[in-house]
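User: two proteins, same treatment. go.

Assistant:
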Amino acid sequence: MPAPEEDRALLVAAAERAGDIARQFHGQNPDVFDKGDEGPVTEADLAIDKMLRETLLDARPGYGWLSEETEDDGARLDAETLFVVDPIDGTRAFIEGGRSFAHSLAVVRRGEVTAAAVFLPLKDRMYAAAAGQGATLNGAALTARGDALEQAEILTTKANLTEAHWPRGVPPIKRVYRPSLAYRMALVGEGRFAGMMTFRPTWEWDIAAGALIITEAGGALSDGHGAPLKFNNPTPQVAGVIGAAAPVHEGLLALRA
């Protein structure tokens, strides 16, 4: 079985290749297809998904596969280890010509993320992590930061700050937004923001890589109710996510109780 750092190196190389494909399509009016409630997908998403599936499974033929752009046949549920991939996280931003989309790649073993890469090709930002090895941005070590909930900058949407989510009062935070969940989580691991949160049912491919980046940077992570995250669920979703520096995470959960 490859070590986490070997899987991390594989993911980083594959994410760089994904970035090369994304750059070819970005700003070129790629074909867009409607997936109904699941939102749009472009020809770039599909091209990257194909490349990642071939590249990663050729390198690790015993691993399972879960991707936003590949029909899930359930075979992954029998795999001890699998790839969890979002070819382009932030597809709407990509279509609109934005630069804050990301490629989100992770390895999950027995429900835990062991290797991760989140790459923003148009910002030249490669976030990576391996279990027990820390998290990095372009090779430099990351540390999650945030000492108090008061006026903490939290990446989230307006909907997550309605009173219905906060039995003990809406937190006194400063709200910030970025379009990609993977990028939001990576920014928390980087220490640029104190936390991120979403309370909607959340697809595993959006958050698996970012989850490891936060925890390996020393941050705290849970679902929206404070329970630990587990991956490779039969329906590949979790009940929201709160990822933050430990004191901020504790403060948020105290207001959710």
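Protein 2:
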Amino acid sequence: MADDRILVMDSVTKLAPEDAGKVLVAASHGGVYAAYLAAKGRAGGVILNDAGGGLEDAGFGGLAWADGFGMPAATVDCWSARIGDGRDMIANGRISHCNAAAARAGVTVGMAAADAAASMLAAEMWTGAPPDLPESRFEISVAADGTRVIGCDSASLIRDEDAGQIVVCASHGGLLANAKGYVLKAPVYGVVLNDAGRGKDDAGVARIFAAADMGVAAGAVAAASARIGDARSAWETGVISCVNDLAAKAGGAVGMTTQEFVAVLLRSKA
């Protein structure tokens, strides 16, 4: 029988107060922001998706950060399990990276995610104090027609009032497996996400195409070009690797920089 102290989730943003102490197998990327949310919820340990590693290994950058206060953290290989799909993570995920705290708990590279979670569960609860990591949402620019370009480190920071605006978002471009109708919090005009290394079944860009059904022109930056979880990096160094039909009709194309892509969307909207 499954242990109810191991919590399988499509997104680490969905933690509840009663989840404190549980080990999370969460299909978010393994960057610092995702690790921060797990730590904020006092998870006993967390297993995330490595999102292909990407620029400066940001896809598993949360592991070293979590070591700073002793929380066990690991990632599965994005080619072994779909990002955004917790059930696939626990069933098929294979550990690609683990921090020192997870290693002390018995987690090893190549281990099945389910076994790694059980190992974390058997370890003593960490007692360190995680540093605060303010949620990062900022305005990039305002066009002549009033359209705002907004940066968000996480899709969870998109707001209702962002409808009709353009969002440069550093979340992965995958869909949440158990929330089929959910794509974005608001019908923005355009969005840029991170392709998370694309991974198994091209899961890292599934949201890009689903966004078209909301009327959203969407593109993804290559994980190798911008740090996942870091909207400033997406804006400054991102290179588009995938676009949906609406973005293509507006003039967006693979190979553009994020700034070129956003400029095309702004011209199209105007």
